[in-house]
Amino acid sequence: MTRVLVVDDSPRLRSVIGNALATGDYDVVTTRLDDDPHTHLESTGPDVVTIAVTDQLADGLEIAQRLLATSPTPTLVVGPDETADRARTVDVATHDAVDVLATPSDDETEAFGTELVETVDELAAMDVATLAVAHTAATARSLGTSRAAPQRALADDARGCVTRSSANTTPDRADRSPVEPTPTHATAPEQRSSPVSAPSTTREHSPVDSPTIVVGASTGGPSLIERLFATLPAALEATVLVAQHMPEAFTPRFAARLDAVSEYDVIEPTDGDRLRPETAFVAPGNSHLGIEIDSDGHRRVALLEEDGRRPTPSIDVTMTQVAGAIDGPLCGVVLSGMGRDGVAGIQAIKAAGGYTIAQNEATSSVFGIPAKAIETGCVDDIVPPDALVETIIDAMAGEIDE
């Protein structure tokens, strides 16, 4: 059931909106505009917020923007039909996460109710990626500064990579030269550092027969990753790690969305979770997804703190950690996004003998991450999204059959 929080400064609007929502299957919670909407957001966890104002539409939009920056929820603003203010403010400030309806007159309530229900349903079905973009933009605006993701140039430390053009061409296991891990010191989760180097461990553990797949993406990535999970067969029995640049408020929803469309068990992990086949781990938005190996040789999630020097979660951190900890079939995938996060990761996976894939330019919303990875010469295959799952299956089947 869709839960709607109705925030208003008018008994009349409260009645009109409440009566309209009563026609649908909604759980409605109401509060006055002079109360703190944040408190009600935290206590009720609504799917959609409606804000009704009687004076200035811009005031309602300003409230919506503040809520979006701190408690990101799709929001409908109902207020006076001031066309100029509406067009200017909605276009600049809301990034599709906030819609606007004009306050109805007494003879317009029936038509308004129909439109209200349709709008609430559309907002409730909003894509996580769209809301994440709106949240990031609103947060940046509230701070009065641009918050472009920090980028850091990473040194090219893998040489002699060869690009292959066929999806059926897999690396020769005899040529593998696994990356030896760089020792680090395990600490409490909140104190963990987040180096690009591999985790602290020896490689004297049982081989992994099922494949490990690491997927990294930024802008344009969520929908591509959802398509991948919708078609990735459980029969492959892979362990999948996902590093998608996304604010922490959205990664739990993103994981839940992937879980709903996939044959895999998709989760946002906690520190120490054991890696296992037919399970996917989505990096939390406030930390990097690393790996450590316990005394029994089991690979476990190590959540590493954000260090301010690279996008969080970092593709490089996850890929390099996996390259140093996994000795079975391994595949690294980089998809659409801005920047060069993933360059060191793809190099590490290639150096460890893994198979590497990048999205092609024609289908990339932003051809930054894939392009930088391809420039290293360490990418085995360049494919469109429709060919991604087949390419992974072909590459990993060849590894497992060896």
UniProtKB/TrEMBL annotation:
Catalytic-site annotation from UniProt: 218, 245, 341
Biased composition (Polar residues): 190-201
Top-level taxonomic group: Archaea
GO cellular component, one term: cytoplasm
Domain CheB-type methylesterase residue range list: 207-399
EC numbers: 3.1.1.61
Domain Response regulatory: 3-118
Top EC class of this enzyme: hydrolase
One annotated GO biological process: chemotaxis
Region spans: Disordered: 139-215
Catalytic activity: [protein]-L-glutamate 5-O-methyl ester + H2O = L-glutamyl-[protein] + methanol + H(+)
Protein name as it appears in the record: protein-glutamate methylesterase
Organism: Salinadaptatus halalkaliphilus
